[in-house]
Task: inverse folding
């Protein structure tokens, strides 16, 4: 599992509240990614990081921000959650010497 | 049109049947990935290939670069193979290796 954990694993929140999801890795991977998975869509990239304090937007970044202050943690923040952000969120990592990614267990987020 | 298309979207088969899942892509790639997602939700990488064929146990993955097409085969299918199988591609350019994913094929194997 490449030493990847996500927290929380499940969260129910209300529209308009801030939410932060955490991805933690223990194997010093350089690249980290946040995806969302929704029915009828493939995994879609929200944001990714290529090093500490180095992040960039993916294809569905609106309404999300990220931070990476240390190698092992990549945080995804929904500043003001909306019902359209109800989804399953996956973190993934890549050590940078090839394209293979390793996925965390996922976080199921419900915004009421 | 999605850059990565999978077929079929859903597949139900009897235990023991030979299974084929297809993936077509429209962009240049450096590698193609097959991933498995079990009902519990975890995603694991099955194969990464850039040419030819790879085999692991009862699973075989093939790719035809000229036709931009890959297949995942399962021989002697078993109920534990029931999962969503996802195709993904890596772009031709080197760098952060962002993947583009298909929407997945849901496979159900009936005992």
Result:
């Amino acid at each position: 599992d490449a030493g990847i954990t996500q927290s929380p694993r499940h969260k129910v929140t209300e529209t308009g509240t801030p939410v932060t999801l955490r991805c933690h890795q223990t194997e010093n991977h350089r690249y980290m990614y946040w995806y969302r998975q929704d029915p009828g869509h493939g995994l879609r990239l929200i944001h990714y990081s290529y090093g500490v304090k180095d992040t960039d937007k993916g294809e569905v970044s609106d309404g999300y921000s990220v931070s990476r202050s240390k190698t092992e943690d990549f945080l995804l923040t929904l500043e003001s959650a909306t019902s359209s952000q109800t989804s399953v969120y996956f973190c993934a990592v890549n050590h940078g010497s090839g394209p293979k990614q390793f996925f965390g267990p996922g976080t199921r987020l419900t915004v009421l | 049109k999605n850059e990565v298309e999978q077929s079929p979207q859903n597949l139900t088969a009897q235990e023991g049947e030979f299974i084929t899942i297809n993936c077509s892509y429209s962009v240049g790639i450096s590698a193609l990935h097959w991933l498995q997602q079990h009902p519990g939700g975890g995603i694991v990488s099955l194969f990464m290939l850039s040419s030819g064929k790879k085999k692991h146990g009862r699973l075989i993955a093939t790719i035809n670069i000229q036709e931009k097409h890959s297949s995942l085969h399962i021989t002697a299918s078993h109920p534990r193979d029931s999962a969503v199988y996802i195709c993904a591609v890596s772009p031709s350019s080197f760098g952060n290796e962002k993947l583009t994913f298909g929407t997945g094929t849901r496979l159900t194997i009936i005992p």
